[in-house]
Amino acid sequence: MGRFGKDCNSSRLARLAVITGVSLFVFAGVALAGVPKDEVPVPYGQLTFTGNVFDISGWPATRTLSQVEIVGDSLCQYNDVGSSWYSPDGHVNANAHIIFQCGGDWISSPWDYMGVGQQCKHYDAIGDLCGSGWKPRAGTTYYFYLTGISRDHSGGVSEERTNIVAYEWFGPAGFPPPSCEGPPVINSFTATPNPVPYGDKGLLGENKEHNVELSWNISNGDRVRLDAATGEHAETPEGYPVIDGVQLLLEESNTFTLTAENECTPAGNRPSMSVTVEVEKPVNMGGIGLLLLNDFGNDSTTTQ
Q1: 10-173: CATH number
Q2: How far apart are CA 53 and CA 55, in angstroms?
Q3: pTM of this structure
Q4: Domain limits of the chain?
């Protein structure tokens, strides 16, 4: 059986042998003999951990998660934790965790509690972990594991976890269920106003929250992705639900690319459309004047 973290220096390991059947447990933040190897996109300790009150990055894998699957409206995580982990109330003794990619980072977050001996949990609790409206997407691989209670101070804690199991989210039983009738279509993608008048960007004391609205109309899609060529808007969330548009505050010209998505269309076949938003620059009139925008949005010229 493969070992996780086998290159760790043995002098750093705090060893505790516990015989349970034929399993030998060695506590050192690594997978233990008899526990399957982690199926992870990056080493466990290099994940970004959120939603916990304890630092779980070094918790060792002492119990086995053998399989993950969707059954009805539940996500089943078949495990041998049983009552071996501490329970503050005699009923709950674990947290279920999901590993997913958000903004280029691999995130590990708890998504619900697990009762003593519990194997399945309603998957609707998995949501809003990468921005409002985020949920697992069909065809995407996520990674699941259990830990001792990690997200509240209930008096005691078992600093242990299971191995990590990869699972490709099964769309028809997941959410949103695919109801595609072919690939998505971008009917329109526009910016208003375009160009953005100089001064309509908060630099003249107007303190505006936005100065341009990107609008789109999508058919047969359930999400869109908005990417910018440069600047702060270049780092976009995984996707927006299909809404009418977004409002932005731009201080310089930029090009935005909209990609429409649905559950049935592979990434390489998803349509995209781009629009370039121009932000006007001040007009130097050779010492005669400067084109400004007054409080009412009308052009005026001041002479020197």
Answers
A1: 2.60.40.10
A2: 7
A3: 0.51
A4: 10-173, 185-282
Domain covering 185-282: architecture: Sandwich (2.60)
Residue 36: is the preceding peptide bond cis (ω within 30°)? no
**119-123: long-range contacts, CB 8 A cutoff, minimum separation 24:** 119/76, 119/77, 119/78, 119/79, 120/71, 120/74, 120/75, 120/76, 120/77, 121/74, 121/75, 121/77, 121/96, 122/73, 122/74, 122/75, 123/70, 123/73, 123/74, 123/75, 123/174, 123/175
* Residue 259 pLDDT: 87
Tell me what pLDDT residue 176 has. 47
Residue 158 region, left (φ>0) first, then alpha (ψ -120 to 50), else beta? beta
Least confident of 3-7, 121-125, 282-286: 3-7
Q: Is the pLDDT of residue 300 over 50?
A: no
